[in-house]
Write a structure and sequence with these properties.
Largest sheet of chain A: 5 strands, mixed
Radius of gyration of chain A: 26 Å
Number of domains of chain A: 2
Oligomer: heterodimer
Protein name (chain B): Nitrate ABC transporter
GO cellular component, one term (chain B): endomembrane system
Main location (chain B): membrane
Strand order of the largest sheet of chain A: 2-1-3-5-4
Order of helices and strands of chain A: EHEHEHHEHEHHH
Number of domains of chain B: 2
Shape of chain B: globular
Helix content of chain B: 40-55%
Radius of gyration of chain B: 21 Å
Distance between the termini of chain A: 80 Å
CATH topology of the largest domain in chain A: D-Maltodextrin-Binding Protein, domain 2
Subcellular location (chain B): Endomembrane system
Helix content of chain A: 55-70%
Strand content of chain B: 5-15%
Keywords (chain B): Cell inner membrane, Cell membrane, Membrane, Transport
Number of strands of chain B: 12
Structural class of chain B: alpha/beta
Strand order of the largest sheet of chain B: 2-1-3-10-4
């Protein structure tokens, strides 16, 4: 019998991440999304779609609802098991660390399930890394802006050259054991007092 | 005492009965026992289970049945959970929507005046609905392996209702329950506090029966750790249990309940107003009928009645209900699981250190006591409460099979013969 495509239901309230995961699973599975359904509604979607696997954010409170499908199994002939059931749990640990949970219909062969779950884990990680990069560059940009403005103020008020103004800030940072960004913030907040 | 580990991360779910953990942190009991603990809030029980199994948490606020359930079928990647401390007894209630309440009163007014309220009126409502070609009712509980699930099922079963056929059992996280009930997505729920109080306050539903009326002094949450963790860090485990035990004793004093309500109202804990948290903590309970306040000073028990002792008979009772409702699908030795998952010796070591009296037996008959009694099998006698089940049945931990045979209503998926063979 030819393998029919695995149908994955993706439940993620974060649209950017859902997009990344969906792209990653392209070709490996048919992906259906249920972005903002909760509880009983979500159960309805699951019963209608009969997915082979459900990929969901580890933090989602809806996970408890999905787990109850085991009890609905008599109505819904497909029992759901956690993919960690067989095996040493290493994959489960990896998934928890990446923030992804997966529920797989019992009877689906491991050979076909693993790639889907692994892709999901990898995509969650990728999103996490992207997110952290984005946050970091935002912070860097803010720091640079503050430092430039503080430097400008010093140059203007103390008649310092650009290099000397920066050196003065660096010395202050080392003496007080704080970052140059913090020194810049201090200078700017003091300056704002005098401006008023 | 040298601890193997003193930095701990403990997970909890925003509920009133996370109070012993919160009090242990905020009132300095962890610190006193040499522990530096961070508490981490979680949205779902699945997340608590997975993080604990993966070693991302040291310990967790846990639904009591989750510990024995982890020993079934290699369920969580082979990670087994154990507990050396019960966090509380009682604290849940069954709340029905205003509409369902009205229908129940109409169907059988007499049954609705009885205390505890039985499912007799509900049975008639369901029969009427099915006769009229309507769907049956949806009942929400918080997790498949929860005292809530077993309490509702017990209550339905006592009136001959089949929870897997006559109603639709769904699971939703506690903070969503009131909203679901309001929107008509569910018709009833069984949940811990403060959510029943909130449904009553918002006139969304009526709390008709407390879990304590289904089984008096029903065990509720435990402090769970991985079995491997317990083996690796025995001294830390005892220190952890001692800190939370001391916090539980602190919570037992009425005058401390207001203080904990204020602490729990903070956003990093439950994040609801103090006035929503106080009724259940103060022992007023949810009000079934707004004209009469239920006397419920025992609504939430944190310490007295040896409430923190991990009775193996509690674990066993939960296992009988897992079997009864088809959650156990292959024969297992229930006693072996109860002995593995519940660790009274850890409790005794911690209690001994604090000078708290502790039971010297591991099991007791459950549901056998109509009135308050004294437990003499203890370092000093301990006052114990009534432990009645709503149908008057009692559970003898030495007679698991005959107990299971006694239920007319069940959905067993294994043969009792096979379990009996394992036990003999």
């Amino acid at each position: 019998m030819a393998d029919t495509p695995i149908i994955v239901l993706l439940v993620d309230s974060n649209p950017e991440r859902a997009k990344i995961v969906e792209q990653g699973l392209h070709g490996a599975a048919v992906v259906k999304q249920a972005p903002s359904l909760h509880g009983v509604e979500l159960l309805g979607v699951i019963e209608r779609l009969q997915p082979d696997a459900i990929i969901i954010d580890c933090e989602s409170p809806d996970r408890d609802t999905i787990e109850n499908l085991q009890l609905v199994a008599r109505k819904n002939p497909k029992p759901i098991v956690m993919f960690v059931e067989n095996g040493d749990g290493a994959l489960a640990k990896e998934a928890v660390r990446a923030g992804v949970s997966a529920y797989i219909v019992d009877g689906l062969s491991e050979k076909r399930v693993l790639p889907v779950v692994e892709i999901a884990i990898e995509r969650f990680r990728m999103f996490d890394a992207l997110w952290r990069d984005l946050e970091k560059s935002k912070r860097d940009l803010e720091a640079r802006k503050a430092i430039e403005r503080a430097k400008g103020l010093l140059m203007q008020k103390r008649q310092l050259s650009e290099n000397d103004a920066y050196a003065a800030m660096r010395t202050m940072a080392m003496k007080q054991k704080i970052s140059i960004k913090d020194v810049a913030d201090n200078i700017l907040s003091v300056a704002s007092l005098f401006d008023e | 005492m040298r601890l193997e580990k003193n930095q701990l991360l403990i997970g909890f779910v925003p509920l009133i009965d996370s109070a012993p953990l919160v009090a242990a942190k905020e009132k300095g009991f962890f610190e006193k026992h040499g522990l530096n603990v961070e508490l981490e809030r979680h949205q779902s029980w699945s997340q608590i289970r997975d993080k604990l199994a993966a070693g991302a948490l040291d310990a967790a606020h846990m639904l009591a049945p989750m510990a024995p359930a982890s020993w079934l079928d290699n369920a969580y990647g082979g990670e087994r959970f154990v507990t050396g401390l019960s966090l509380n007894l009682n604290g849940n209630a069954i709340t029905v929507s205003e509409e369902l309440y009205r229908q129940m009163v109409e169907a059988d007014p007499e049954a609705m005046f009885e205390r505890p309220t039985s499912a007799r009126a509900l049975k008639k409502v369901i029969a009427n609905r099915l006769k009229a070609g309507q769907e049956t009712i949806n009942i929400g509980t918080v997790f498949p392996f929860s005292s809530h699930n077993y309490a509702v099922r017990y209550w339905l079963g006592a009136e001959g209702l089949n929870p897997d056929r006559d109603v639709r059992m769904v699971v939703a996280p506690p903070p969503y329950m009131v909203e679901h009930l309001k929107e008509g997505k569910i018709d009833a729920f069984c949940v811990g506090e403060p959510w029943n109080t909130l449904a009553e306050c918002d006139s969304v539903g009526r709390a008709i029966v407390r879990s304590a009326e289904i089984w008096r002094h029903m065990p509720e949450k435990v402090l769970g750790v991985r079995q491997e963790w317990a083996d690796e860090f025995p001294e830390t485990h005892v220190a952890l249990v001692a800190s939370v035990l001391e916090a539980a004793a602190w919570l037992d004093k009425r005058r401390n309940r207001l203080e904990i309500a204020e602490i729990l109202s903070r956003n990093d804990y439950i994040g609801l107003q103090t006035k929503a948290l106080l009724p259940s903590l103060a022992g007023i309970g949810a009000l079934a009928n707004r004209k009469s306040i239920i006397e419920a000073s025992d609504y939430l028990i944190f310490h007295r009645y040896a409430a923190n002792f991990p009775w193996r008979s509690h674990a066993l009772w939960f296992l009988t209900q897992m079997a009864r409702w088809g959650q156990i699908v292959s024969p297992v030795d229930l006693h072996e699981i109860a002995q593995g998952a519940y660790l009274p010796e850890i409790y005794r070591a911690a209690a001994g250190r604090l000078g708290v009296a502790y039971p010297t037996i591991d099991e007791k008959p459950e549901g056998a006591e109509e009135h308050a009694w004294m437990l003499s099998e203890a370092t000093t006698p301990i006052a114990m409460p009534s432990s009645r089940f709503v149908d008057g049945f009692s559970f003898n931990p030495d007679a698991v099979i005959s107990y299971l045979e006694g239920f007319k209503r069940h959905n067993l998926r294994i043969s009792l013969r096979e379990i009996a063979d394992l036990h003999s």
